[in-house]
Amino acid sequence: GENVEQHPSTLSVQEGDSAVIKCTYSDSASNYFPWYKQELGKRPQLIIDIRSNVGEKKDQRIAVTLNKTAKHFSLHITETQPEDSAVYFCAASSSTGNQFYFGTGTSLTVIP
Amino acid sequence: GAVVSQHPSRVICKSGTSVKIECRSLDFQATTMFWYRQFPKQSLMLMATSNEGSKATYEQGVEKDKFLINHASLTLSTLTVTSAHPEDSSFYICSAIKQRGGFGGYTFGSGTRLTVV
Fold first, then answer.
1. Closest residue, chain B, to A89 (C-alpha)
2. Most buried one in A46, A67, B82, B114, CB count within 10 A?
3. Do A63 and A73 form a contact (C-beta atoms < 8 A)?
């Protein structure tokens, strides 16, 4: 099955700085890569996603890049704000199974 | 939008009893639902894939006799934790796909915090 690794596990940045979270996956059949933000005790919320036919996608302060050859993808948050503090999960999925396999999570703290 | 409702949000049960968690898609039909388990400060671990009208597919290492999944209709899947023990205490969360291949419709329930005492 798919194995998704995520780094770092914790990340602290000053408000206004950028944050980068990286994930790798093992199954070359994976073709969809969402990122979720989860606040304590709440459901994960989709913040951005990318399909394997695209190398980069941006939505305001959030961007995701995908290197299909190397099997890694990254989340970039610019101009971080305290409300960005949460746990972020990457995931990988293939169209055949629809299951999502999640990374181990990154606890992001934005220091005011 | 796609809304998934999960109940109960919190449950405390005695060791040895069973607990049922419901996951409902409120405004769409979900042929496939997923059940995840999340320990504190850890990732979501896929437990099983639930398909309407058929047996659930369990991930390796998940005891199917302990975690009973029933997907009786296109809008309801249930997870029953049988003979619960303290080590089963966790955050259980379901998700559903609005349409096959429609990844944007992958929606999570609000989760159930299970505490076994």
1. B43
2. B114
3. no
